[in-house]
Write a structure and sequence with these properties.
This protein has about 110 residues and is mostly helical. The chain has helices spanning about 5, 15-35, 40-45, 50-60, 65-75, 90-105.
């Protein structure tokens, strides 16, 4: 029996749009590293990860933990960029504003 057919994949299932977004994030990280003239070896050592893991980050691999992305951002000098995730929550603000307006209207 062929094990490759019976073994479950550890790779998460993601939507194509999300996959493209992760690829873009990886590309942005790679460009930031290259702009600083940091080698894969230097960044992977600073981040405490293998070169193969850094390559996965730079490809936007969805199987890489978010903590690894944070370590890489720190290693290239962008530690605060991790907090930019979900910064502009437009839908959440719309929902919150509509609830605030409906509460205000019920006080009359």
């Amino acid at each position: 029996m062929n094990n490759s057919k019976t073994r479950k994949s550890n790779k998460p299932v993601i939507m194509p749009k999300t996959e493209r977004q992760l690829e873009r994030v990886g590309e942005q990280i790679k460009l930031a590293r290259l702009r600083r003239n940091y080698s894969v070896k230097v960044v992977s050592e600073r981040a405490g990860i293998s070169r193969a893991t850094l390559w996965k980050v730079e490809k936007g691999d969805p199987g890489v933990a978010i903590g690894i992305y944070a370590k890489v951002l720190t290693a290239i000098g962008l530690p605060d960029d991790i907090i930019l995730l979900a910064r502009d929550d437009e839908l959440g603000r719309i929902i919150q504003d509509s609830e605030l307006l409906s509460k205000r209207g019920s006080r009359k």
